[in-house]
Specification:
Elements: H1 8-32, E1 41-45, H2 51-59, E2 64-67, H3 70-83, E3 90-93, H4 102-105, E4 111-115, H5 118-134, E5 141-146, H6 163-171, E6 176-182, H7 191-208, E7 214-216, H8 223-228, E8 233-236, H9 238-241
Parallel strand pairs: 1-2, 1-8, 2-3, 3-4, 4-5, 5-6, 6-7
Length: 249
Amino acid sequence: MTEPRVDDDARREELRTSLAEVRGRIDAAARSAGRDPSAVELLAVTKTFPVRDAALLADLGVVDLAENREQEARDKVAEFGRLRPAAGVRWHMVGQLQRNKARAVVRWADVVESVDSARLVEALSRAAGNALDAGERQRPLDVLVQVSLDEQPGRGGCAPADAPEVAEKITRSRGLRLRGVMAVAPLGGAPDVCFATLSGIAERVRENAPEAVEMSAGMSHDLESAVAHGSTRVRVGTALLGGRRLISP
């Protein structure tokens, strides 16, 4: 993976400043909602950014990193392991995932947040089970059910009415561990309405799967609304890392 040369010290200070700002927003949003700020995790979305940014974020205490393209993530995770072998971060897959990529993604991902169909559950279960048997994984794959809040085809996510069924299939699948639900507020949609809807879906899922306590919702522009409606994990890219950079020319 070829990266442009950058001044690590200068970039580290940029990231330190933005990280403090984002964590301040999360803290304020949680307190405003009467919640403990420690109950809201920060997931740094490092897609399209160089692996050195991910390494610098780990140096600053960020323990959860996210990618949305399997091949880019695979290479980045491998390089990160060489740069920071003892960092102990968790890697999340947050982008749409094709079934034929299941075997590859279970080799590097700790969490897949974009599970949106029974067929994808089957593919991931088979891949994760085989990886456990082969010693390529030491623990089950944590997964979240992605819900489409506008039900537009092509954007990922299952219909809200289907989320409990997908969740139930996960609970009966080998190699997977259901952790909760995820969604992206639709463009142009009212965040409060969207996240209130997701909160209701999360409650329905927990009726049959009380262990599914996570709600991954909220991004750079709407994290306050998501936290107010119960998000336990906000996925932040732009507010943390700035405008998108290419990892290679």
